[in-house]
Amino acid sequence: xxFIKVSVIITVYNxxxxxxxxxxxxxxxxxxxxxxxCVDDASCDGTTDLLRHYKETDKRVKVIRNSENRGAxxxxxxxxxxxxxxxxxFLDADDYYERDMLRQAYNRANSCEADICIFKEDSFCENPDxxxxxxxxxxxxxxxxxxxxxxxxxPKEIKDVxxxxxxxxxxxxxxxxxxxxxxxxxxQEIRTSNDAYFVHxxxxxxxxxxxxxxxxxxxxxxxSSSLSNRRDYSWGCCYxxxxxxxxYLVEFEMFADFEKSFINWxxxxxxxxxxxxxxxxxxxxxxxxxxxxxxxxxxxxxxxxFFYNVFDYWFIHKVYESxxxxxxxxxxxxxxxWTKQLELxxxxxxQIFQYIRDNIYHAAVWGVGKRGNIFLDLYxxxxxxxxxxxxxxxxxxxRIKEKYIIEKxxxxxxxxxxxxxxxxxxxxxxxxxxxxxxxxxxxxxxxxSYLEAYLSFPVAIDECIL
Length: 466
Hints:
- Helix content is 40%, strand content 17%.
- The chain is an alpha/beta fold.
- The model is unreliable at 224-229 (pLDDT under 50).
């Protein structure tokens, strides 16, 4: 009998369009000591027939079919109850995976008997012509590189940021089965955010966590059947998850240890849910925040300096102070949110300009789109900023904010420039590569990461410079 090292649990509902690629990427893994448990959540497309085919052709495949649609949380619990592997991983049926993912994750976790092994992912979507567009997640890379160097670490070593370093997704984490059984952890049987409580309570309870700074999961986005697209009908799930997590931390006397991380994550997660809902759902959520959610988590008692991102503090108090919901009161679009971030973060902006002066740098701004123009409206008159670059040939040569001529970045135009502000994390690395190909010693600064504190993680100036 083959010892099963990893049980892979995939839940699927009407996922036939992408399921074949997902299953092939698991069964073709370089690691063979696995079982693949597929929970068919009462699909009514071709999913059931496809799973039957895989079960008949590969003895590692097990199929469980729900008699009625029960949702991803319940289906994951059903899959877990049938798993026999030393380690467990829960994957999504519309994603695909690097061929060496399970081998690397298992070997890393098993070598140090870690309760959890975490790794990284990217995202992708497809054009109508089938071309894949790949995007990344804005990880707090300096912190993760440090964790990657450790064989393992305990949650309390990073207690102030435990919930802020990673999302509460299950599909980028490998869990030791006996650990999950011992802690009696289960997925919530709610429509959305059903994996977050399981993941975060496991992370808080673990003795050993290990992290690999490698991308092994390719996560499909913009899928109409995806659970993430159903939140307008189930916005209360974010509250159910946060309440259950807090109760768990309190019950097992861990809340004091992880309070700062939990509160920062909660404020950030509530805002993310707020701005990503449609308008009708957003109004309902706004009322729930005012009537009980802010009080439930005592969010108003924390001072501004307690929050890693001052915007999260502002959001909480703006909801509290507003008698009725008005879309104009709280920014929900990218540009309005960016403007508010700049306005609120006067202290942080003062620190970055002081940093530039202390190092006797001469700075430039890369990009004069909407974000760049807003930045220049507020800070374009500062003496630290000497030049403006843009790759758009139609903008080059034009005067902006009276004192600047927009230039194309080159060896000649970069003369005397030491520091470049980049307005968006989405093209930060691309800009850095172009700039460093011409002038390696340039400091390229990701101002979005610096201001927004992704996942409410505290970032230092040096951590935003490439």
